[in-house]
Amino acid sequence: MTVQVIYVGFMPTNCYIIYDEQTRQAAVIDPGFDSGKIAASIMGGYTVKMILLTHPHYDHFTACEELRQLLGADVYCYGTAVRFIDGSDNTINEIIRRPTPPVKNPIPLTDGQIIRVGSLEVRVMYTPGHCEGSCCFVAGNAVFTGDCLFKDSIGRCDLPTGNYGIMLKSLAKLKKLYKAEGDKEVFPGHGDSSRLSYEVRFNPYIRESDAFIE
Ligand SMILES: [Zn+2]
To answer: What is the CATH classification number for the domain harbouring 110?
Structure first.
């Protein structure tokens, strides 16, 4: 698996493309903005038929519908995120004045579900706390954490449907993942990449999540 990061929008947001060399299939994660830039960045010879969303915040899916049409791809998000993506509920994105372009027919994911990008297996891990409908994607030795886990930090929990206590439980899940499967590279929704081993050791929020390990 090859991972490419594309910085999109004003924050910026990390949009990722994951590539399966065996089958030449690829998937885009979190096309926040700049659909043209993302489409132009796809490596030659690869086909993208899947767009995955870590969570339903506008800075992670504003370019999603445009990119979906451009590529003829399907969009996947956690089940409880669907209503925030398809235009039926704008409560968690009313922070911005202009509504985010609704995504047509997003496909709902469940906790623990495996989706396949060519021969790659991508596992869905439900990790709410930053907002409802947040999940991480575990693929090989990588985990795409959206706005759940950042290098040395976490996403904010004070926006609509955010909850710090629930966030700690999600962080405990990531710590459990590290204990069960060993080290993985962390690709967050914003900022630098990191490693689970580093975050488990130094991230103050993951350390605080200890009480929630089941
Ligand atoms: Zn967010």
So the answer is: 3.60.15.10
